[in-house]
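User: I'm preparing a small set of examples for a lab meeting where we compare how different chains pack in three dimensions. I only have the primary sequence for this one, and I'd like the structure in token form so I can line it up with the others. Please keep the answer compact; I'll paste it straight into my notes.
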Amino acid sequence: MRIDKFIWSTRLFKTRAIASKSCTTEKVKLNNLFTKPGKAISIGNVISIKVAPIWKTYKVIDIPKSRIGAKLVAKYLLETTSKEDLAQLKLIHQTNRQNKILGIKGRPTKKLRRDLDNLLD
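Assistant: Understood. Below is the structure token output for the 121-residue chain.
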């Protein structure tokens, strides 16, 4: 099975087009090497997917015939991402959620920067 079809069918990506695009933009690794969407996978391979600041890693246990339900994903994939990386990802998600609640959307605009400069002076 192709890697883009596999990561779509195991619900790591919402659509197959997104899965294919992430492969071409070097956000997916197969056995620690960047891969093309058409690369074939087999049982025992390690898949790494770039999620914000970390790489989430999965080991292929079995290959499904088609897209599977969310409850069945554990039969086909084993997540091997380290606990430290998952904790770092959780911290970043919490920070982003708090910033969204406060109305912070990223870099300040020119007006906000001037207001901050006036406040600090």
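A couple of notes for your slides: The longest helix spans residues 83-102. The beta strands are 28-30, 33-34, 46-51, 54-60, 77-79.

User: Perfect, thanks.
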